[in-house]
């Protein structure tokens, strides 16, 4: 398909700029075997998507006008392959192997609560604002949160690190403490995905923690 070929060519440009950039149109043409006209078309598209920065000038080694050279933007770098799941898995394995389960749970709770307090609005904010902030934060992280009206319970339909939590269920305490930090409320699990439930369900208690 034309769209697939277009995406493939632009990905090759992004990959080469990451490996060897900044590069000129001539540099890209020689490395990728694409015409300068085609490359300029792709570069315009990548700049329009915010993935390639507007060109800067590079003096030539010999006579002639300076060359225009292209680099990736931070947005493009953020889309390159990452290996967070394996890093997270190794860290959790190291933590649980270096201390007792109780100490590992305490460490993960402190980390989760610290993140929640940093991202939350604090206990002085109105409850409705705290809950809305918590939902927005969890939504942006892929938890698919949904409040169960009238029950004081929150359902999380997705676990962003399910494979890790299934191997080390103590990781779930990070999420529980995270929600406590976000809402300034005491939180307890009612059900968890790692316990073969369709979703994680948590009860929030307004008396604090």
Description:
The chain has 209 residues and is α+β, with helices and mostly antiparallel strands. The protein has two domains: 77 residues, Winged helix-like DNA-binding domain superfamily/Winged helix DNA-binding domain (Arc Repressor Mutant, subunit A, Orthogonal Bundle), CATH 1.10.10.10; 105 residues, Muramoyl-pentapeptide Carboxypeptidase, domain 2. Helices cover 53% and strands 14% of the residues. It contains nine helices and seven strands; from the N terminus they run H-E-H-H-E-E-H-H-H-H-E-E-H-H-E-E. The strands form two sheets. Strands 4-5-7-6 form a four-stranded antiparallel beta sheet. The chain has a three-stranded antiparallel beta sheet with strand order 1-3-2. The model has no long low-confidence stretch (mean pLDDT 91).
């Amino acid at each position: 398909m034309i769209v697939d070929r277009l995406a493939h060519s632009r990905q090759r440009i992004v990959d080469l700029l990451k490996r060897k950039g900044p590069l000129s149109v001539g540099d890209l043409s020689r490395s990728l075997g694409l015409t300068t006209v085609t490359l300029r078309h792709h570069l315009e598209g990548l700049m329009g998507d915010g993935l390639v920065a507007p060109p800067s000038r590079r003096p030539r080694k010999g006579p002639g006008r300076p060359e225009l050279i292209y680099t990736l933007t931070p947005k493009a770098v953020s889309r390159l392959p990452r290996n967070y799941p394996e890093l997270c898995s190794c860290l959790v394995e190291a933590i649980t192997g270096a201390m007792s389960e109780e100490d590992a749970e305490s460490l993960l709770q402190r980390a989760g609560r610290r993140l929640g307090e940093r991202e939350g609005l604090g206990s002085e904010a109105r409850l409705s604002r705290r809950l809305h902030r918590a939902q927005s934060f969890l939504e942006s992280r892929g938890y698919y949160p949904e409040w169960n009206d009238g029950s004081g319970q929150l359902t999380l339909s997705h676990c962003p690190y399910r494979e890790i939590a299934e191997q080390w269920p103590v990781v779930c305490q990070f999420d529980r403490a995270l929600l406590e930090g976000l809402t300034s409320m005491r939180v307890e699990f009612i059900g968890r995905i790692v316990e073969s439930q369709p979703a994680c369900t948590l009860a929030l208690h307004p008396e604090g923690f």
